[in-house]
UniProtKB/TrEMBL annotation:
It comes from Roseinatronobacter bogoriensis subsp. barguzinensis. It holds the Pfam family ABC_tran. This is ABC transporter ATP-binding protein. Keywords: Amino-acid transport, ATP-binding, Nucleotide-binding, Transport. Residues 5-229 form the ABC transporter domain. PANTHER family: ABC TRANSPORTER ATP-BINDING PROTEIN, HIGH-AFFINITY BRANCHED-CHAIN AMINO ACID TRANSPORT ATP-BINDING PROTEIN LIVF. CDD domains: ABC_TM1139_LivF_branched.
């Protein structure tokens, strides 16, 4: 079966400094893949490369069987890659509704469905994004990505810095999306939350894949070697 996202041998540089040393990973239709690793190991760089926001020195990005290695990021979005970026990055001076509408593309996710999915966004529809709490901004960032009607949702540290009760709400939302059949690639550092969710884990170490497999195969030794602080 052709993977939905197929990253092959990505080599990515920031100026003279190499960040990715041949990363390969795949996300299949309906799968939830966790991208893991300590700080600075290349997770965000991998996500940004898959969204076509960073140029590659070598390697291939395929989405839905199409080679998009040299495609611009708007084309990746149009083909169905939805990004919830690290730091949320909502438009601070637009209202909640304006933020959502700004990214809308036709499909089953529209304003009404996003507002039903996140009632908090309906309650705060006229409020400027800058005035939302961190958790509400995260809901907005996810809602905005859903408004593009993605085939693959990529989330970079979606629960970072949020209070436990809000983290639970975000995990419940992402889990509902997965149950609905959406394919997901996500970065998160909280093992107790990401392992029950993921179908497959990929661990990066210094810009390369150090281990990959099912969450149940992740031994304490692997955790200590690659994910310990
Ligand atoms: N804009 C940039 N300019 C130069 N180097 C960068 C830039 N962004 C990231 N890097 C470097 O690339 C490497 C990979 O960084 P990346 O942000 O992808 O890691 P990460 O695993 O997502 O880390 P974190 O968990 O801290 O977000 C690091 O060595 C980092 O310092």
């Amino acid at each position: 079966m052709t993977p939905l996202l197929d990253l092959e041998n990505l080599q990515v540089f920031y100026g003279a400094s190499q960040a990715l040393f041949g990363v390969s990973l795949q996300v299949h239709e309906g799968q939830a893949v966790a991208l893991m690793g300590r700080n600075g190991m290349g997770k965000s760089t991998t996500i940004a490369t898959a969204c076509r926001m960073l140029p590659l020195r070598a390697g291939t990005v395929r989405f839905g069987g199409q080679d998009i290695t040299t495609a611009p990021s708007f084309r990746a979005a149009r083909l169905g890659i939805g990004l919830v970026p690290e730091g949320r990055r909502c438009f601070p001076n637009l209202t909640v509704t304006e933020n959502l509408i700004a990214s809308a593309r036709p499909g089953q996710w529209d304003l009404a469905r996003v507002q039903r999915f996140f009632p908090r966004l309906a309650e705060r529809k006229q409020q400027l994004a800058a005035t939302l709490s961190g958790g509400e901004q995260q809901m907005l960032a996810i809602g905005r990505a859903l408004m593009t009607n993605p085939r693959l949702l990529m989330l970079d540290e979606a629960t970072e810095g949020l209070a436990p009760v809000i983290r639970q709400e975000i995990w419940a939302a992402i889990t509902a999306l997965k149950s609905d059949g959406l394919s997901i690639l996500l970065v998160d550092k909280t093992l107790s939350e990401i392992l029950p969710f993921a179908d497959h884990c990929v661990i990066l170490e210094r810009g390369a894949v150090a281990w990959q497999g099912q969450p149940k195969a992740l031994s304490p030794e692997i955790v200590a070697t690659y994910l310990g602080v």
